[in-house]
Amino acid sequence: MKISLRAGERIYINGAVLRVDRKVSVELVNDVMFLLEGQVMQASDATTALRQLYFIVQLMLMNPTDIRDAAALYAQHHAALCAVCESREMLEGLGAVDELVEATRYFEALKRIRALFPVEEAILAGAITESPFQAA
């Protein structure tokens, strides 16, 4: 996989933070966990339940050698989110996220969570969602 970085940009690879001083292309020739600086969520931006889940998975990706605490927090947060969610789309997405996290495919899990952000926004805005009560 080839990644192009701008001067001053950071990339997080297997827990290491790299910052480049000029425009550069990097080719990752083996299977590594990485996150581009633009995909990193700051703690202050984790303002909703789904964004908090993203932040937790991000921690797992950024520090793969010490995920015990983050994994426990993920399990609690994911279970709580599933327990209160009524949207079928959200529940299916959370199920897919859980499978990816279990397989330690954190980058793909983050992508899947980001894809659910509009669903969460609609739910929080009060849009009608599918629920067992509405189906009847």
The average pLDDT is 87
Number of helices: 5
H/E series: EEEEEHHHHH
Number of strands: 5
Biggest sheet: strand arrangement: 3-2-5
Helix content: 40-55%
Categorize the overall geometry. Answer: globular
Rg value? 17 Å
Question: What percent of residues are in strands?
Answer: 5-15%
Largest sheet: 3 strands, antiparallel
Structural class: alpha+beta
Number of domains: 2
Describe this structure in words.
By secondary structure, this protein is α+β, with helices and mostly antiparallel strands. The protein contains 5 helices and 5 strands; from the N terminus they run E-E-E-E-E-H-H-H-H-H. It has helices spanning 49-62, 68-84, 88-102, 106-124, 132-135; strands at residues 2-5, 10-13, 16-19, 24-27, 34-36. Helix 1 runs antiparallel to helix 2 and helix 1 packs antiparallel against helix 4. The longest helix is centred in the C-terminal third of the chain and has 19 residues, at 106-124.
